Amino acid sequence: MSDIWEYKLQGFFHDPPEKAVILFRRAHEQGSVRNVLQTLGLPDEQEFVRKADRMASAADRMDLPPELWHFRTDFLENPIIKHPLSNQEYDLRNLEELGDQENLDKLEKETTDFFTRLIERGENGEIDYKKTFLKFWRFGPRPWDANEKLYLGRLFGVLPADTRIPDHTIWDHVNLTSALAGILGMGKQPALLRFALGPVQGFIAQARKTADLWAGSHLLSMLTFQAITAVIDEFGPDSVIFPNLNGLAIVDLWIAQQLGSADAFSDNVLWKTRNSDANPLWIAALPNVFTAVVPLDQAHEIAEKARARVMDFFRENAVAAAKKMFGMNDLPSTMMDQVLAQTKDFLEVFYAIVPWTDGQDDKYGDQANAVGNDLAATKNLRKFNGLQQEGYRCSVCGEREWLRDDKDLLNRHNPQGTVWDKVDKKKYAKKDEKLCALCTLKRVWPELAKKDFTDQMKN
Fold it and tell me: Residue 401 forms beta bridges with which residues?
């Protein structure tokens, strides 16, 4: 019995990466598609793959009126690509020589050999379909990140999926097709899941130092990634259609963990080599919202799993930050109660789910708008849990109690002889600063994140 990763590979390789080049010159369903699928031991032209292709195509591009259904554009004669947002055209010029049979043969062989080298096998030579798919997804549009040099160079990563509407790449199309094929192959209905967390502006703005501002932004990005792992652990990174995860350092690190090694990545990939804050792992690269394609019957479970991962990550790091701040192995019970109370209901998590149907009158744009509107409506129904706080408040946010090991200290202005007197004043908190659990977390976050990244890269 096939598993989801086999279905996804069939969807990913239903079209060859070089489709735009070979179109009108040879059958694009053959060539590298046939060669790679045969090497993988997978069938082609399955009905669920054709359906996934149709649904992805409808989402990728505008509907053409019937009189233009047979309209054709030869990419080598008119090599135009467009920016998907600005619609700015880029004329690549002089690609007609690629259409020679010799060059087409070379391109087909090179593509076949490249993906064949990416195939992961176990100790007994059996194909590991999950690891193979992850490498196809990551390095397909960026061969140079795997130390591969292909004939088309950087053009290989931007070849259009549809030469008539060249504002999206073949990789955009096959990624969405593979996400849908994995679900349809299991006999399930796809759905759009939109997930958001907050608060954003207020949490970031409560800062006294530039480092606090960065820490708030980076921490929110990492919280989003924790939610995203609830999707990609089971359904792959192609299932997240916004934002595009390909090439993000934190996702690369996740892929390296799945592969069991970072050896597949070139040493030119910056997250492997830069030992400063210029390392892209320190970039707050993810927004506070994502959209994913998931099975409808599992969508609610996945969203709740994402919520749980966010809450657990936030709480565990708040406890770790307090221990780091005060140099404690265990927090006093009074302080632990504060940390748990201040983190319990601070984060806001919202999500909406809309079935993705495949009828003649069902448009992806309408369904995407529907899930966005549902999420906005959900945000308007805010659940409010009041946090009872007593005495003097945090020096930074002014909203929550400052952390202490003795409850009676809260009613004294700037008491001396507290745990805050032992805090490193150059590293963590200035003189007379006393912080709550959340502001402590932001102040210590750079060290916690560095340790986490270092441990992951060592492993």
Answer: 393
E strand or H helix at 298: none
pTM over 0.70: yes
What is the C-alpha to C-alpha distance for residues 177 and 136, in angstroms, rounded to an integer? 14
Q: Which residues of 343-381 are buried (b: 16+ CB within 10 A; e: fewer)?
A: beebbebbbbbbebeeeeeeebeebbeebbebbeeeeee
Radius of gyration of the chain (CA): 26
Q: Report the distance separating Cα 176 and Cα 168, nearest Å.
A: 12
- For 33, 49, 445, the CA distances from 42, given in Å and listed in that order, are 11, 12, 46
Strands 240-242 and 289-295, sheet pairing: antiparallel
pLDDT digits (tens, 9 = 90+) for 213-271: 999 999 999 999 999 999 999 999 999 999 999 999 999 999 999 999 999 999 889 89
Residues 341-378 pLDDT 10s:
999 989 999 999 999 987 655 578 888 888 988 888 88
Amino acid at 170: I
